[in-house]
Amino acid sequence: MGKTYDLLIVGAGPAGLMAARSAVAEGLKIAILERKKDICKIHRSCGGVLNVNEDTFGEKVRFDQATGDLRFENSNTVIRYDGPYQDLFGFCLYAPGGGKIEFGRFSELKKDPAKNRLGIALKKGRLLQVLLDELVAAGVEVFPNTNVVSVRKASTGAVIECEDGQTFSGTFVAAADGINSRLARVLGMNKDREFYGTTRDTSMVVRGCACPAPEGFLFMTTQSGIFSMIPLADEGCYHVYASTFRQDDKPKEMLDYFLKEDPSFSHWYRDSEFVEDERTACVVTLMSPLQKPFKDNVLFIGDACWRREMSNVGSMNSGWKAGKCIAAALKAGAADEQGIQEYLDWYEKYYYGPWGVRKQGGRNFNEYLTYEDIDYLVGLCTEVLPPTLDIIKAVNFIGQYYGELMTRIYEERPETMERMIVFRENMEPDLKKRLKWGFRLTG
C-alpha cells in the first residue's frame, strides 16, 4: 500500500488546485495526482477567460489591475495574478451578412474597464503555475505524469490505483479530472445521466485581426457552420473556434474555410498570422450534471460533475468550497457523506438547483433558417441588450426580446415564421440524430 493522505485530489486544473489551496490552509495532508507531465501546459481548446464583476454560481470576482489581485468576494480569498490580460465586455452575435446583436456597447463600456469589464482573458497556464507554486511551498505533494485508472472504497476511505502500479490511500478523494471524468466512469456515476451528444472542437490562435468588436466573446453564423472568437491574454491575439455535433463535419477544414475563404468574415483575418503550432482540439461527450456528486468518499468537483465546462470561476469556487468542507468533516471525525453534507447542500443551491436540470442547447438552427431569415431576424434587434458574459442570461435576454416580436415576424415574413415553427417542432428528432452521431461514456 502506498502513502496515506487526508485528501487525494485527482486533477490539477482550477478546481483541483483550489481544493488543495483551501484544504492545506486547514492543515490537511494532501496529494495531487495529475496525468499531464507539464501540469500548467494547456492542451485542449480553452480561451482562459475568468468572469469578473458578474455573479457566477454564487461567486463574484473582482480584478485589481494595479496589483493583479483576483478577489473572490464570497469565499474571501485572493489570488495574485502576475501575467498579461485583455478585457472582455460582453457577447456579440453576428449574422451571415454582418449584422449583429450586441450585449453592451463595447466602445462605451471600455472607457471604464474597472467598473464595466465582465471578464479578463488571462494566461491560464500562468494562473495554474501561481497556484501550484503556492501549494508546493505549503507542503502539498504533487505527482505529475500519474495516470489514475481506478478508485475503490476502503475501510479508511478510498484507494486509488495508477497505470504505473502506484497506489494512494486517502480519507477523501476530490475528483477534479475534468469533463468526461474517468473516476465518474469507474464508479458508475454516468448510468443515470442524460446523454446529449458528442462535440468535436478545434481552435487556432490568430495574431492580428480587423474584427470590429475585439473586446467581446463573438459568435458568427456562416454558410459552413457557427464559429466563435475570444481574446487571449496577449494583446492582439485571439482564439477562433469551430465546433460540431455532426459526424460528417471536419472541424479543421471548417475552421480553415472560415478564416481564409468565408465571404462575410474572412476579411477580418486577411492580414492575420495563423499560429499552426498553437492549434488545439478536444472531443467532449455531453451529459447532464451529477445531481449528487459524491460516492464512496469521492467528491466530484468542477467540470467532473458538470455537462460541459462550468467556467473557470465556477470550477475554482467549487474546489475552494470542497476543500473547506472536507477539512471540516475530518476535524469533526465525520469521514462520510454526512460529513460533507454542507458541500452537497451548497452545490444544490448554487449549481444543480438553478442550472442542473436545464436541457443542453446547441441545435443548428441554420439547417432550418435561410441566411436571409437570419439576417432579417438579427436586423430586428435595434437595441443594445444588457451586457453579460453569462450565456444563459444572454439566451434569456434574446428570448424576452424576440418574444415581443412574434406577431411582427408573422406579418412581415410568414415563411420565416413557418421555418421557425418547424425548427421548434423538430427538437426531439434532431436530438435523436445527434445522439446517433455521438458516443456515450458508460459506467
Going by CATH, the homologous superfamily of one domain would be FAD/NAD(P)-binding domain
Total E-strand runs: 21
Question: Any idea of the CATH class of one domain?
Answer: Alpha Beta
The first-to-last residue Cα distance is 26 Å
Second rung of CATH, namely the architecture of one domain: 3-Layer(bba) Sandwich
- Count of individual helical segments: 13
**Low-confidence regions:** none
Largest sheet: 8 strands, mixed
| Annotated CATH topology of one domain | FAD/NAD(P)-binding domain
* Tertiary shape: globular
Structure characterization notes:
- Helix content is 31%, strand content 27%.
- With 443 residues, the chain is α+β, with helices and mostly antiparallel strands.
- Helix 1 (14-24) packs parallel to helix 7 (312-331).
Give a short overview.
This protein is α+β, with helices and mostly antiparallel strands and 443 residues long. The chain contains 13 helices and 21 strands.
Highlighted features:
single chain, 443 residues, alpha+beta, FAD/NAD(P)-binding domain, eight-stranded mixed sheet, globular
Spell out the blueprint of helices and strands.
Layout: E1 4-10, H1 14-24, E2 30-33, E3 49-51, E4 61-64, E5 69-72, E6 77-80, E7 85-88, E8 91-94, E9 100-102, H2 106-109, H3 113-116, E10 119-122, H4 124-137, E11 141-143, E12 148-154, E13 157-162, E14 167-175, H5 182-186, E15 195-207, E16 217-222, E17 225-231, E18 237-244, H6 251-260, E19 273-287, E20 294-295, E21 298-300, H7 312-331, H8 341-356, H9 371-379, H10 391-403, H11 406-412, H12 414-425, H13 427-437
Parallel strand pairs: 1-2, 1-14, 2-11, 8-16, 14-21
Antiparallel strand pairs: 3-10, 4-5, 5-6, 7-10, 8-9, 12-13, 13-14, 15-18, 15-19, 16-17, 17-18, 20-21
Helix pairs in contact: 1-4, 1-7, 7-8, 11-12
